[in-house]
Structure formats: C-alpha cells, structure tokens
Amino acid sequence: MPDELLDRLRRFHNDAFPQYREQFKTLVDEGQHPTTLFIGCSDSRLVPYLLTGAEPGELFLVRNVGAFIPPYDGSHGHHGTTAAIEFAVLNLQVRRIVVCGHSHCGAIKAMYGEVSPEAPNLNRWLDLGREALLPMQPGPEVLRRTEQRAVVLQLERLMEYPMVRSRVQSGQISLHGWHYVIEDGEVHVFDVQTGGFVPASQSDHSGTGPYQPYVEHDGQVLVDE
C-alpha cells in the first residue's frame, strides 16, 4: 500500500522547500521573530496560514480543542497553552494575540451534550468554555452565539495573565477575537466598542480595537485625547 504521508514529505522537500530555502535559512541564522501569537481551534478546517496569508516565521501557533485558554493561576493544571502564551509574550515579544474560534465547532457542540466516559480529559478541558453556554436548546443560532461568546471569554481570560494585561494597557500588545465562518470564507472580528462581531469585509479594524492613540513620555503612557 502506498505511503501517502511519505509521498507528501518527499514532495515538500523536492518541490516546495526550494522556493523557501533562503527564507528558512534566514529564520535559522537570525532566529524566529513572529509578530502574532495565533491561538486557534484544532479543527482541520481552520488553516491559519491560508486564512491570514502569513509567511513562514510570522505566526507563533497554538492549537487546541475549542481555542480555549486555561486560567493563569494554574487552577486547571499545567497546560502547554499557558506555557506558549508566556513564551510568546516574554521571549518572542509578539505584538498581537489572536484568539480564533469558528463555525460548526465540535468543542462547542460537545459542551451541550454528553462527553464519553472514556474522555475524562476532554470533559475537564471543555470546562474552560462552559461559561459561554446559553440556557437554550443548541440550534444553529445558539451554537453560533456560543462560539462567539467563547472567543470573548478567552480574551477576558487572557487579560488575567499579568504580562499580557500590562502590555495591552501600555499599547505593546493588541488582542484580536475572531470567529471564522467556514462556509462563507469570512472572519468576523470582535469590536470591544460595540460588544459584537463584525464581518471583516465591513470592519475598520481586525478585532478588539480600535484603541485610543497613546504616547510615551518619561516612561509613562499617556492617552492622546
């Protein structure tokens, strides 16, 4: 039986990699300097590089079921997602953090139903999104609203991370909440001013903002009214 994965690895090495050889060499010689931490659902239909048009080295990726973020205080146990956030902010000094949920999310749907007793870790992980649930039967509109509410919940949880909060408040980092509607090929971005999600084709910013301009003076951040 043909080994499809092996064939793909060979095609990458022989056909795709030569186009990016110099780019990868630079990334090795100079190290990675991604500008964006992208926290997205593990769903196979969500393809961050395709969605954002990013090149190698631009995105620091974290993928998990539901695009959930554990509490900073460790009350939910040790998680790679928490470690990745700390590394991206403190070591890589990213300028943006994107939390990206999507339509038809299996994690959101699972929270409204029963989780297999063979998946206790999944059940506990879903606790991180249950605060977004609505007291209604999970029809299409309820699921869509819950998906978006879950994104906002994760943004709020991000602000509990001291290194994130301080950098957001000083303007060093911006937060972006996205809800990707797979069937439309459009991202709806969260606008903190209106408290709702706006299609990217109609929005004047890429999520959460706009922020008021600020200037630094003698080490203090001043709002420029």
From TrEMBL:
<keyword id="KW-0479">Metal-binding</keyword>
<dbReference type="InterPro" id="IPR001765">
    <property type="entry name" value="Carbonic_anhydrase"/>
</dbReference>
<keyword id="KW-0862">Zinc</keyword>
<dbReference type="InterPro" id="IPR036874">
    <property type="entry name" value="Carbonic_anhydrase_sf"/>
</dbReference>
<protein>
    <recommendedName>
        <fullName>Carbonic anhydrase</fullName>
        <ecNumber>4.2.1.1</ecNumber>
    </recommendedName>
</protein>
<dbReference type="InterPro" id="IPR045066">
    <property type="entry name" value="Beta_CA_cladeB"/>
</dbReference>
<keyword id="KW-0456">Lyase</keyword>
<feature type="region of interest" description="Disordered">
    <location>
        <begin position="198"/>
        <end position="217"/>
    </location>
</feature>
<comment type="similarity">
    <text>Belongs to the beta-class carbonic anhydrase family.</text>
</comment>
<dbReference type="InterPro" id="IPR015892">
    <property type="entry name" value="Carbonic_anhydrase_CS"/>
</dbReference>
<comment type="function">
    <text>Reversible hydration of carbon dioxide.</text>
</comment>
<dbReference type="Pfam" id="PF00484">
    <property type="entry name" value="Pro_CA"/>
</dbReference>
